[in-house]
Amino acid sequence: MPCLPLACLVVVGLFTLTACSGTPTTESRDGYRVDHSYQSTAQSSRVRHLVLHYTDSNARRSLRTLTGPRVSSHYLVTREATPRVYQLVDESRRAWHAGASAWQSRSNLNDTSIGIEIVNRGPSDTPSGRTWTPYPAHQIDTLIALARDIIERHDIDPVDVVGHADIAPQRKIDPGPRFPWYRLYRAGIGAWPDADRVAAYRADFMRQPPTLEQFQRALAAYGYPVRVTGRFDALTRDTLRAFQMHFRPARYDGFPDTQSAAILWALLEKYRPEALADIPQ
């Protein structure tokens, strides 16, 4: 038997290893076979948004609700000393968590988002006023690890990490003013304005505040589903309340003020400068 050149032996060996590797390139389906030998590079994730919610109930009840026939989420994060992360819907599937919603140019965000429900009872009305359930540090640590993983795999823009209230301000208030958005930002998750730019804009707006129409245009430019009417209507107030819960939780009355305006303009300058340029001054 003649000796094969070394290069041929290498090729034969590699072919044998590939054939025996146990990784099939074809898949049998009902009535046909699919060949997976080639993969196009012209593709991207369907996921554009990460939406955070609170459950308004305990873990057991939340699981029962989220595995029922009406609502769902991709993940549920519990609040035990060692929180558990339940995956209830595969990320490739559409979970029913956002409902009627909009952000920037998209609506029905169930189609383009991953939803995380966080076990938290939300608000309680007491004789001394409304109180909000805090989020324990260990629960947020777990959430940060989960959110980082999702954001990295789907390349989600910081502005597109939102709360349910941001995308449905007339229906929802979660995850509420006790949610630690700034802590998430410091961990590399979501958007936050730079303090020096907020201070600079606030000084400007103390001299000449933006008009209500400019405020509405700025909110819409950032992503909020608000109509530009020049009137202080219910949608504008609810949208401002959602914005304030997210970025100025110390006061979220829904009324326009110079600090809220300064935060919004600083956010646009940092994350949407082209949109800021389109707002009439």
Automatic annotation (TrEMBL):
GO terms for biological process: cell wall organization; peptidoglycan catabolic process; peptidoglycan turnover. It is an enzyme of class 3 (hydrolase). GO terms for cellular component: outer membrane. InterPro entries: Amidase/PGRP_sf, Amidase_domain, NAMLAA_amidase_2, Peptidoglycan-bd-like, PGBD-like_sf, PGBDSf. GO terms for molecular function: N-acetylmuramoyl-L-alanine amidase activity. Residues 35-176 form the N-acetylmuramoyl-L-alanine amidase domain. Residues 1-21 form the signal peptide. SUPFAM superfamilies: N-acetylmuramoyl-L-alanine amidase-like, PGBD-like. The keyword Cell wall biogenesis/degradation applies. It catalyses: Hydrolyzes the link between N-acetylmuramoyl residues and L-amino acid residues in certain cell-wall glycopeptides. Belongs to the N-acetylmuramoyl-L-alanine amidase 2 family. This is N-acetylmuramoyl-L-alanine amidase.
